Amino acid sequence: MPVNHQACQFVRQLSPRPDKILIAIHGAGAFSPQDYEHFLQGVDDQIKDPAVKGKYDCLGVLYADLMPRHIALVGKEHSDFKKNFKQQILREQFLGLRAMERHRRTLPPGASTRTLGIKSAANDLLDWIFKNGIVDRLIDFLSLFVSLPPLANEIADEVYAYLNDFTFATQVQNCLLDALAQAAPYSQVVLVSHSLGTVVALDALNRWSSNQKIDYWFTLGCPLNKVKLLHEDSTATALTHYCVAHWYNLYDNHDIIAGVLGPNFSPQPNDPPTKPSVHDIFVEVGNAMPEAHDYMRNPLTLKFIADALQQRSVP
Fold it and tell me: What b/e readout covers 182-212, taking b as 16+ CB neighbours within 10 angstroms?
């Protein structure tokens, strides 16, 4: 499959070539070269070291124009996927609510007995719902009345298209593989992937034949948990090419697409020691969708990326 070179563009290319490069691949929806320029400026604004600020190259992968128009976003297979996608979002929200209530069991000094009783009753009710398997029936019921927000609906459609169109998936992966090939001369590589771009990145990294290391990989607003649970035949269910030194997954609890990856993607007891751990980091991006999914303009996200380029520790 030939690589679409127009989809892999330098946002900044210095001469002589610096030793650092930032590679970015966007998420669902339209994304332009100007969007990457704004993203790069945001990272630069967070860099304090004059030896690094503005002194690294940046490659952006654009693939919105490759999105297949022939995939039928109708029919039972598509509707089942959307239903399961929505139910998984609801399930994760219930799990988050349960974890939050458990965290709140320790009340501050001076809390009233009535408040303590209400908190205890809420915890007991959530525990009973989970222990008796009622949560699945409740999710099935709620999914009949709950609609996905427009952005989540668009992301679900694009994930479905990516998982069901081999030609499109391969083309997008090739675009990122082209960017990774162009990064070969650099001594430090930082990869940033957002939303659907994280699924593409995992597939591309598993296909990458180079021995070069990705020093830092940031996954932002990542739906990989949903892909792993809903599409077991997908190749994006585990990192099998251990080419990443540090993997940071940034998520916001208000982002219904994102979530922690560590439990499903970090090394298991029988995995080799070279498999990277996933460091899950909570960031406040927005109070609701779609703002909570806008990581590439979030100052704290940009600071973490800037810290990686400066080779400072990322929390």
Answer: bbeebebbbbbbbbbbbbbbbbbbbbbeeee
